[in-house]
Amino acid sequence: MSNNNNKGVMTEKGREALERFKMESANELGINLKQGYNGDLTSREAGSIGGSMVKKMIDSYKMQ
Fold first, then answer.
1. Considering only CA atoms, which of 25, 47, 23 is closest in space to residue 35?
2. 49 in Cβ contact with 31 (< 8 Å)
3. Which residue positions in the chain have pLDDT lower than 50?
4. Which is the most buried residue in 2, 29, 39, 60, by most CB within 10 A?
5. Phi, psi for residue 47 in degrees, rounded to 5
6. Whole-prediction pTM
7. Long-range contacts of residues 43-50, Cβ cutoff 8 Å, at least 24 apart
């Protein structure tokens, strides 16, 4: 049974792209982010990374 509705499905390629984007954002903020578990980050640091990613996505959308 093949379902052509991919809504909500993340491909491996998409997952890898988001991971690279996250690492890039953390690097720009000066936050030491490593592959895998990052439980040593503060909530502020983790939130800064996510906030930076969202800001960049919004800016990118506005540029289109």
1. 23
2. yes
3. 1
4. 29
5. -65, -35
6. 0.77
7. 49/22, 49/25
**CA–CA separation, 58 and 55 (whole Å):** 5
Find the Cα–Cα–Cα–Cα dihedral 27, 36, 52, 56, rounded to 10°: 90
Q: Which two tokens stand for residue 29?
A: 């903020």
| Residue-by-residue DSSP string for the chain | ------TTPPPHHHHHHHHHHHHHHHHHHT----SS--TTS-HHHHHHHHHHHHHHHHHHHHH-
pLDDT for the residue 25: 96
Q: CB within 8 A of 46, min separation 6: which ones? A: 38
